[in-house]
Amino acid sequence: MKTALKLAYRNLVGAGLRTWLNVIVLSFSFVVIIWLKGIMMGWDYQAKSDMTDWQIGGGQYWHEQYDSFDPFTLSESHAVIPEQFNKEIALGDMVPMLMVQGTLYPQGRMQSVTIKGIDPHQNLFLLPTHRLDTVVDGIPAIIGLATAQDMQLEKGDLVTLRWRDANGTFDATDIVVVDIFSSNVPAAEASQVYIPLQTLWEMSDMEGEATLLTFRDEDEERAEVQGWVLKPKEVLTASVDKILKTKTAGQSVFYIILLLLAMLAIFDTQVLSIFRRQKEIGTYIALGYTRREVVGLFTVECAMHSILAVLVGALYGIPFLAWQAKAGWTIPMDAGDFGIAMAQTIYPVFSIGLIISTVLIVVVVTTVVSYWPSRKIAKMNPTEALRGRIQ
Amino acid sequence: MNYYRHITVMKFAIAIIFTFALMPLHAQPTADQILERVDRNLSSDNRVFESTMIIHGARGSRTLTSRTYAVGEKRSFTEYLSPPREEGTKMLKLEEQLWIYSPSTDRTIQISGHMLRQSVMGSDLSYEDMMDDRKLTETYDATVIGSEVLDERNTWVLELTAKVDDLAYESLKIWVDTERYIPLKEEFYAKSGKLLKRAVLSDVVQIDGRWFPKTILYKDMLKQGGDGTEFKITDIRFNENIPDYIFSKAALKQ
After folding, report:
1. Could you say which of A71, A101, A170 has the minimum Cβ distance to residue B169?
2. For residue B37, what is the domain's CATH number?
3. Is the pTM of this model over 0.90?
4. What ipTM goes with this model?
């Protein structure tokens, strides 16, 4: 085996430019595949972490009527906060949120919004709710950057808000935009207005009621509560998993094309070398090599392209990927328009598992592709091969 | 003697002055009576009417025509006749439920909950506004707060405060024609007292012994741009014989 490896290495290096071209193409595939997978992992990590910080915390209890995809359920989705959560809420480890459908009139245009009542002193979310504890000429409100851009609102703007109370009676007042935040989580921003919970209770005649209860600790074992549906974090982030699964499937096509190109070069090289080195094959057999050993030798030699590619890829790939992990990749279009939790700049995450699995896949595929043309050797007539006659 | 006679004459004169002074007050009906007369003019057991709705938006106007059959406050059926895009769209209201049939999709959907609060075809009216046909006397307490001349017509100004919980508007201000008992202007207020909507009623005509406004201009007062929604009744008939099958879901697809 040692001799085979030594021979293979010598033959490879001896082939010169042809080997290095193959190695470079293969190494390029390596680096690109690892980079793309790193982007996916980075997105997954970032999206879930942003969702935790801005939208879902460690998990939530939803009012049983609440459906996040149907804003029309909001009018029925509210109930008194169960007493058993009072202590957790007092400690700041649970944040109740009441949601009411409303209409905002920026510059006199009608815009449908969800009014969210939240405790200004909460620290479970990164929302700048402390700014709601301000005395202004109206109800203090914070909005997301996406809403501010859509409705052309700026900090300090006074705008009329209309809503209905629990009985369906209209009410309207002015709100003052005291802060605008940017979160990368469209679900926490789009068409939403955050105001103090106490104020919304008074406005809607829904004293002590909530639509959502978000808790901090995701690991704690939680019981089902009558009238509320427990939504653990993994359920709430399932949408991200689904999107990533779809994206990964789409990217696999790209990996296959990349690998196909590299493998085509490997395959060609192998076919060519078997064709041109018939005399050598004949000599090996004449020297007592079994055909299987010769096939092995040629397979190892060709598969060694991938080992060299790993080394060459590491040469430029490690600095490149390390730089990417630090500087991130800025999406060349507005990520907010995608409607999913996605930062404008994604920082790829490269795990050891990701790198080893990618290396293994490429090495195995290269070996299989190298073996394929080598099988021809087994069918060769040694005498003819020794003469160098084409068979 | 003269003195006593003088006193008697004075008393008589004061009594006459008071009687005449109080006469207009006696002549003016109470707020509830006014509302009752208004209800009598506007409500009917059943009616069939054709109407035109002109929605004046910021970027131009749209006109929709429709034919409506209504029985009491609970049942109504509307079919849109134009424009071609809305032609054949039908709405059926039964009790508190509303269904809409769209010919382009050949589907009937039920409008419920919050959807009832959405605007009807981009107008200043919500489905709920169109559905709530309850009599004013049943839903509001009224007080006469003054009188005004509106478009050369004498009106009483009434302030209406909700007496039931489930009303869209907590209070209303209406200007009622003193002769014809028809509101010529209505203002709808939020609980906070903010003016939300205004309706101006005109083209008052007498049909079958009752006065009826043939044109109503609605305007969402919080919205800027656009001149509101004009609702014109082009033809109206009261107490017609409307067959029952009209108020069925099956009639929507016919």
Report:
1. A170
2. 2.50.20.10
3. no
4. 0.75
